[in-house]
Amino acid sequence: RNLIYIMLESMETSYLDQSQGGAIDYNLIPELTDLAKENINFSHNDQVGGFRMVTGASWTIGSMVAQTGGIPLKMPEGITDHNGYGKDGIFLPGLKNINTILADNGYNQALMVGSDANFGGRKPYYATHGVDDIYDIYTARTDQIIPSNYFVWWGMEDLHLFDYAKRVIPQMAAQDEPFAFTMLTVDTHHIGGYTCALCGDEYEESYENVISCSSRQVSDFIRWLQLQPFYENTTVIITGDHCSMDNGYFNRNTEKGYERHVYNCFINTAAMPSFTKNRDFCAFDMFPTTLAAMGCQIEGERLGLGVNLFSNQPTLMERMGRTVFDDEIAKASTYYEENFFNIKTD
After folding, report:
1. pLDDT, tens digit, for every residue of 233-280?
2. Do 207 and 29 form a contact (C-beta atoms < 8 A)?
């Protein structure tokens, strides 16, 4: 099966209204809510919910590594320039993630972001692990999606990103091999998000208008996908990368102590889950769960630190308890450094 993996910047279930398990008085993301209800949503409660953030997966590239490889991203002591890691084109060379698995099985793969793909090591991470083509603000200029000198916010708005995806995905689908396309939105980035031409002014807080606009754009994109000839054999996954870092917004609008979770939705899957509600899970579990959604059989239902949520197996967080689990992840690991970073330790 083909895979389209849509990672939404800072998209969390807090944006639902309180009656549906969210944190505020009104639902900012009704379209994403409907998609979750109509398809498969793994939830921490008995409504629309999501997964917890854990150590090593609380920012974009950390979550990308966690969701695709089932491990946290933790820089060893010998690497002092954390933001510069991967500048040599190599990023976690010892890790076998979903992209290396798909590459080994003949998939044509692409990553698309609306900013500079090199930022945070995203380009070297995906290129290291078998992704063939990487699209960003610079290729969008070359491909005339935007003017040659165009730059707003982090690069270009999501409305251009979705237009770009609508051009690239059919080209990938027209080739002989199956494809895996990953995209990352940006308009909902902290602080306050970016108000684009499609945003309304329904809410007093501009960030809420941006979040609402993102929900509509994703829904429109899904409807477009469902009309395409390749859709029948394509699994679509929508997920947040991490909870929003716009702490000011949540201090103003949510009750103290509310536990925030990251959004997820699985569409057109080749598997059906044993149960989806009242789960305790994190970004690591997305790795085997994504492969299971594509129809893969996973021996033991585990890959990395992740557990296949379509199975009836408890996650490591459910087995150990979230506090113990996170404490263990935070510890130093010689195995981690030697096998994923290829750093030899004494």
Report:
1. 999 999 999 999 999 999 999 999 999 999 999 999 999 999 999 999
2. no
Structure confidence by residue, pLDDT tens digits, 266-324: 999 999 999 999 999 999 999 999 999 999 999 999 999 999 999 999 999 999 999 99
Which tokens is 73 given? 């991203």
- Tell me what percent of the chain is helix, strand and coil, each rounded to the nearest 5: 35, 15, 50
CA 7/CA 2 separation, integer angstroms? 16
Query: Residues 210, 187: contact at Cβ < 8 Å?
Result: yes
Bridge partners for 307 per DSSP: 302
d(Cα 135, Cα 294) in Å, to the nearest integer? 24
Tokens of 300: 């033991």
DSSP 8-state symbol, 157 = -
Beta-carbon contacts of residue 91 (< 8 Å; ≥ 6 apart): 85, 121, 124, 125, 127, 128, 129
pLDDT digits (tens, 9 = 90+) for 138-196: 999 999 999 999 999 999 999 999 999 999 999 999 999 999 999 999 999 999 999 99
User: Per-residue DSSP letters for 17-52?
Assistant: BGGGT-SBSS-S-HHHHHHHHHSB---SSSSS-EEB
Q: Round to whole Å and give the CA distance between 156 and 136.
A: 9
Q: What is the pTM of this model?
A: 0.97
